[in-house]
């Protein structure tokens, strides 16, 4: 690990295409930590000091106090990917998981959530296909999340 710790304080607006010096691969939980030390993919020590409540997304770009740029990547992590024979089945289970305040990635063809044996059993009982895998996880940030 390199000795100097860079402090990243700014998330750039989408559309910024300046070259990045670092890639920062983070799990969904790590992307919700706005003030925390991490390491870039090449081992550079960094510190995030972003506005409280910031949730990072795949592709976000960050600027350090010293001007360096980093790009955020969704790090593959253990997940349950849920598929169904019909869209209504996915909508129904999204409703039930939402009532349980489960972090959920929602797409047209699948739902994705963190592994949980109780929820996995519920999904199997509803007749859904549940696949355990390691994949990037991008849960919805919620109705009051920070958009960019």
TrEMBL record:
<keyword id="KW-0533">Nickel</keyword>
<dbReference type="GO" id="GO:0065003">
    <property type="term" value="P:protein-containing complex assembly"/>
</dbReference>
<dbReference type="GO" id="GO:0051082">
    <property type="term" value="F:unfolded protein binding"/>
</dbReference>
<dbReference type="Pfam" id="PF02814">
    <property type="entry name" value="UreE_N"/>
</dbReference>
<dbReference type="InterPro" id="IPR012406">
    <property type="entry name" value="UreE"/>
</dbReference>
<keyword id="KW-0143">Chaperone</keyword>
<comment type="similarity">
    <text>Belongs to the UreE family.</text>
</comment>
<dbReference type="InterPro" id="IPR036118">
    <property type="entry name" value="UreE_N_sf"/>
</dbReference>
<dbReference type="InterPro" id="IPR007864">
    <property type="entry name" value="UreE_C_dom"/>
</dbReference>
<dbReference type="InterPro" id="IPR004029">
    <property type="entry name" value="UreE_N"/>
</dbReference>
<comment type="function">
    <text>Involved in urease metallocenter assembly. Binds nickel. Probably functions as a nickel donor during metallocenter assembly.</text>
</comment>
<protein>
    <recommendedName>
        <fullName>Urease accessory protein UreE</fullName>
    </recommendedName>
</protein>
<keyword id="KW-0963">Cytoplasm</keyword>
<dbReference type="GO" id="GO:0005737">
    <property type="term" value="C:cytoplasm"/>
</dbReference>
<dbReference type="GO" id="GO:0006457">
    <property type="term" value="P:protein folding"/>
</dbReference>
<feature type="domain" description="UreE urease accessory N-terminal">
    <location>
        <begin position="5"/>
        <end position="70"/>
    </location>
</feature>
<dbReference type="GO" id="GO:0016151">
    <property type="term" value="F:nickel cation binding"/>
</dbReference>
<dbReference type="Pfam" id="PF05194">
    <property type="entry name" value="UreE_C"/>
</dbReference>
<dbReference type="GO" id="GO:0019627">
    <property type="term" value="P:urea metabolic process"/>
</dbReference>
């Amino acid at each position: 690990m390199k000795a100097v710790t860079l402090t990243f304080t700014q998330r750039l607006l989408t559309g910024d295409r300046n070259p990045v010096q670092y890639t920062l691969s983070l799990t969904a939980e790590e992307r919700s930590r706005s003030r925390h030390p991490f390491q870039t993919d090449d081992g550079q020590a960094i510190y995030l000091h972003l506005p409280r409540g910031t949730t990072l997304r795949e592709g976000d770009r960050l600027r350090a106090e010293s001007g360096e740029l980093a790009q955020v990547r969704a790090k593959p992590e253990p997940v349950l990917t849920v598929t169904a024979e019909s869209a209504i089945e996915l909508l129904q289970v999204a409703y039930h998981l939402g009532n349980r305040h489960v972090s959920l990635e929602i797409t047209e063809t699948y739902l994705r959530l963190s592994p949980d044996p109780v929820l996995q059993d519920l999904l199997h009982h509803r007749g859904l296909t549940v696949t355990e895998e390691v994949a990037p996880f991008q849960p919805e940030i919620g109705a009051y999340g920070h958009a960019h």
